[in-house]
Amino acid sequence: MRSNQPQTIYLSEYQVPAYLVDHVDLRFELFEEGARVHSTLSVRRNPDSRAASAPLELDGDSLRLESVALDGAELSAADYEDRGDQLVIASVPEQFELSVVTWIEPQNNTRLEGLYKSSGMFCTQCEAEGFRCITFFPDRPDVMARFRTRIEADKASYPVLLSNGNDVDRGELEGGRHFVTWEDPFPKPCYLFALVAGDLVEKRDTFRTCSGRDIDLRMYVEPRNAEKCDHAMDSLKRSMSWDEEVYGREYDLDIFMIVAVDDFNMGAMENKGLNIFNSSCVLASQDTATDAAFQRIEAIVAHEYFHNWSGNRVTCRDWFQLSLKEGFTVFRDSQFSADMGSPTVKRIEDVTLLRTAQFAEDAGPMAHPVRPASYMEISNFYTLTIYEKGAEVVRMIHNLLGPEMFRKGSDLYFERHDGQAVTTDDFVRAMEDASGRDLTQFRLWYEQAGTPVLNVSDEFDAEQGVYRLNIAQHIPDTPGQSNKKPQHIPFALGLLGSRGEPLPLKLEAGEENAPAERVLELTEASHTFEFHGIGERPVPSLLRHFSAPVRVNYPWSREQLLFLMSHDPDGFNRWDAGQRLAVDVIQSLVGAPKDAAVEPRLVTSYRHLICDSSLDQALVAKMLQLPSEAYLIELADNADAPAIHRARERVLKHLAISLRDELVACYRRNLESGDYEITPEAIARRSLRNTALAWLLVINDEEGRELAVRQFRSADNMTDRMGALRALVNSDYEEDRNLALEEFYQQFREDPQVIEQWFSVQAASDRAGQLPQIHALLEHPAFDWKNPNKVRSVVGAFAGQNLSAFHNPDGSGYDFLAEQVCRLDDSNPQIAARLVTPLTRWRKFAPEYSEQMKAALERIRDKDGLSRDVYEVVHKSLAG
Ligand code: TRP
Ligand code: ZN
Question: Which atom belonging to ligand 1 lies closest to the Cα atom of 378?
Answer without folding.
Answer: 13
